[in-house]
Every structure is written in C-alpha cells, then in structure tokens.
Amino acid sequence: MEIERLIIIFLCDIMKPKKYDLVSFRMYPYGIISEIHGFSKGAILSANTLKIETVFLIVLWLLV
Length: 64
Known about the structure:
Blueprint: H1 2-14, H2 32-47, H3 52-63
C-alpha cells in the first residue's frame, strides 16, 4: 500500500505542468495520472449500479 502511494506521488511529480507546456489541465492539475484517478473513481461509483450480467458482457467485450 505504501509503495503504491509513493509511486503515485512520484508520477504526479514527474507529470506536473511546466511553465513552458502548451496545454495545462485545470480540472486535473497533475496531468494524465490525476485524470486516470478521477475517471476510475467515477467508474467505480457507476459500476455499483450495473447488473452483474451487464458487467460480465462489458468485460467479455473488452477481452475479445
């Protein structure tokens, strides 16, 4: 658990927007890492509302 936290902190530090970047993220200030983190939180919350059959079909579709 601690190693995962350190890896995330390290990656967020690497991906911080620089002054010379052409694109910056206001909603996700640490770039792609925080965007993935935000997306995964939303995906987990919405997955709770799906039926197990629907989740199974989605997983099957992604694997094929």
